[in-house]
Amino acid sequence: MIIKPVIQGVVARSAHPLGCQQAVLNQIRYVQAAPQISGGPKKVLVLGASSGFGLASRISLAFGGAKADTIGISFEKGPSEKGAGTAGWYNNVFFRQEAEKHGLIAKNFVGDAFSSEMRKQVIDYIKKEFGGHVDLVVYSLATGIRPNPETGELWRSSIKTLDKPLSGPTIDLERDVMLPLDVGVATEDELDATVKVMGGEDWESWIAVLSDAGVLAKGCKTLAYSYIGPEFTYPIYHRGTLGKAKDHLHKTADVLNQTLQDLEGEAYVAVCKALVTKASVFIPAFSPYILSLFKVMKENGTHEGCIEQMQRLFTERLYRNGDHVPVDNARLIRMDDWELAPETQSAVAALMAEMTADNFQHVGDYQGYKQDFLQLNGFDFAGIDYDMPVDMAFLMSLRP
Ligand code: NAI
C-alpha cells in the first residue's frame, strides 16, 4: 500500500508510519542533545501521550535526562483493512520501541481515558508491574467530547465567543486557502459542556482515584497544559468558551495543589506557546495569528515546537534539582514568555494588519505551518520515499 497525505479541511485522514517514526526519533535526538533535566521524575503517567504536548512530555522525560519509565494513555486507531491507522498509534509504537532499547519501561494503554475501566487497568498495572507508584502525572488530553461518567451521555465542546459573534479568517489546509468563518455566541449549555470537556473535572477525578488507590508517590507532582495568548486573540480564546474551560483547569490546579499537600505533592498548569497540533488547527480565526507568530519567532530565533517547549519546561521550571518552581502571580508556569514578549507581539500585530486571503502564504509562515501539520501525520520528511509501498502485514504486527 502506498500512503499519500489525505486532508479534509483541517483533518488528516491518513498517516505515514515511517514519517511518524522519524518524528519520534527527531524529538528524541533533540532532547538528548539539549540541556538535561536534573532531579526529574522516575515513574510518569501521561494522559494524552500519543501526540502534541503529551508525546513531547513523554519523550523529554524519558530521553532528556530523567530516564523516566512512562505509562501513556491515548485514543488511537491501529492499521486494519480500512486504512493504515492514526499517527498517534505509530508514535506509541515507535516511542515504546526506542524506550525499550534504552532499558526503559514504556507501557501504552489505548482507549478512553475518561472511562472508569481505564482508571482500573492503569492502577492495576502501576501496582503489579510499575513499582507501585508514579511521581508525575501529566494531563494532556485534547478532545471535543467527553462522556458524562454517570449517564454516559456525551458532552460536546464548542469553540465560541461569550459576548458577541465574530468573523475571522481560517485556513483550509486541504485547499491552501484562507476563508472567512463566523463564530457564534455560546449558549449557557454549550459553555457548560465545553468546561466539562476541557476544564479540570476529569483531571481532578484521575488524581482522586490514583490517590485513593495509594499509587501516588510522596512528593508526586501533576501538571496540565493551557493557553492564554495575547489580547487580540482574547475574543476567540481567552474570553471565549475555551478560555472559560482553561480558567476551570487553572482553578483545579489550585485545588489539587491543596489536596496533594498530605503527600507533599504539587499541582501546576503550564501555559504553553501556540503551536500546530491535531487539536489547535480547529480553533477558528486563529490561523493569521499563528502564521504571523511563527514568522516573527523564527526570524528572532525564539521559535519552539512542542519538544523544545517541554524540554525547557522540565529543565528550567518544573525540575530544578529541588528548587522552587517559578510561577506568575496566578501560580501558572509561563512557557509562553517568549511568545508574549512585547517586541514579538508588536511585530506580529504589524504582520497581521497586512495579511489578507491573497497574501497570507507570503506574509505569514504558511509553509512552516503546513509542514508542521503534514509532519504531525508523518509526511514531508526528507529521506522518506513516499512512493514506496508500505508493508501492511508488517504494520499490523506492530503493537503499541
Ligand atoms: P493533541 O491533539 O496533539 O493530543 C491530544 C492527546 O489526547 C492525544 O494523545 C489523544 O490520543 C489524546 N486523547 C484525546 N481524547 C482521548 C480519550 N478520550 N482518551 C484517551 N486519550 C485521548 O493535543 P495538544 O495540542 O497537544 O493538546 C494537549 C493540551 O495542551 C491541551 O490541554 C491543549 O489545550 C494544551 N495546549 C495546546 C496548545 C497548542 O497550541 N496546541 C497551546 C497551549 C496548550
Automatic annotation (TrEMBL):
Ligand binding (NAD(+)): 48-53, 75-76, 112-113, 141-142, 246, 275-277
Active site, UniProt feature: Y237 (proton donor)
Name of protein: Enoyl-[acyl-carrier-protein] reductase [NADH]
Domain of life per record: Bacteria
Name of the gene this protein is made from: fabV
Domain called Trans-2-enoyl-CoA reductase catalytic: residue spans: 84-319
Entries under Gene3D superfamilies matching the protein: NAD(P)-binding Rossmann-like Domain (3.40.50.720)
Family recorded in the similarity comment: Belongs to the TER reductase family.
Enoyl reductase FAD binding domain: residues covered: 327-390
One record GO biological process: fatty acid biosynthetic process
Reactions catalysed: a 2,3-saturated acyl-CoA + NAD(+) = a (2E)-enoyl-CoA + NADH + H(+); a 2,3-saturated acyl-[ACP] + NAD(+) = a (2E)-enoyl-[ACP] + NADH + H(+)
Keywords: Fatty acid biosynthesis, Fatty acid metabolism, Lipid biosynthesis, Lipid metabolism, NAD, Oxidoreductase
Organism annotation: Enterovibrio coralii
Enzyme class: oxidoreductase
Protein residues bound to substrate: Y227
Species classification: Bacteria, Pseudomonadati, Pseudomonadota, Gammaproteobacteria, Vibrionales
Subunit and interaction comment: Monomer.
Domain Trans-2-enoyl-CoA reductase-like NAD(P)H binding: 2-81
Function comment: Involved in the final reduction of the elongation cycle of fatty acid synthesis (FAS II). Catalyzes the reduction of a carbon-carbon double bond in an enoyl moiety that is covalently linked to an acyl carrier protein (ACP).
EC number, UniProt record: 1.3.1.9
Residues under site feature: Plays an important role in discriminating NADH against NADPH: E76
Example GO molecular function: trans-2-enoyl-CoA reductase (NADH) activity
Pathway field: Lipid metabolism; fatty acid biosynthesis
